[in-house]
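User: I'll paste a sequence; please echo it back and then give the predicted structure.

Assistant: Echoing your sequence first, then the prediction.
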Amino acid sequence: MASAGDEDLVASKTDGFKVGEKKTVEEYAKLERELRHSVISLTAQIDQNDESLNRWKASLGISNSPALPVDPKDTRRCVIHSLALEVPGRSDITIDLSVPGALESLKSKPFSIKEGAKFRMKASFRVQHDVLSGLKYLQVVKRKGIRVSKDEEMLGSYAPNTQEKQIYEKKFAEDEAPSGMMARGHYEAVSKFVDDDDHTHLKFEWSFDIAKDWK
């Protein structure tokens, strides 16, 4: 039996698009070496410390920094550490998911958002074992059982974290809370993080209230 929100929490698909063959970190590193050798053969003038080259390597998820130690019993590829609501001029509302019971409290203890306020969500997460391809955030919001919005945010692809880059933080697109007397009230949401392989890394239910002012 499907759980709440499963029928809505489906990532959009582009007609004719097929997910490319996945590559491991080692395969990306080998590709980088082969491409570097070809370029050097043609120009013989590439500076290994050139900033643009380093940015290109980073875009491929290639780093010379040692990998973070990973518990071999922890098979998760993406570990969400925290979720936060960022509002200009106010302290972030942060949920530390490493705290026992944190996910469960998201639904039973709603937070308030002032009507018309601009805000954005952000997530901190760690990637381990292998490259994470096409991470997305999906969210469905309902009021009194009726769906009022569905959002999909592409977060990107990531290499496993290293000693140099121990955590990733991704800020979502800015949003604006609805306003007016009819918009005020209680809302319930279901969200999940999913990748190109339709593997769900985290799914949770939460709730919030749209109020006339901050509480």
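Strands lie at 78-86, 93-96, 111-114, 118-127, 132-143, 146-158, 168-171, 175-176, 185-194, 200-211. Residues 39-48 have pLDDT under 50 and may be disordered.
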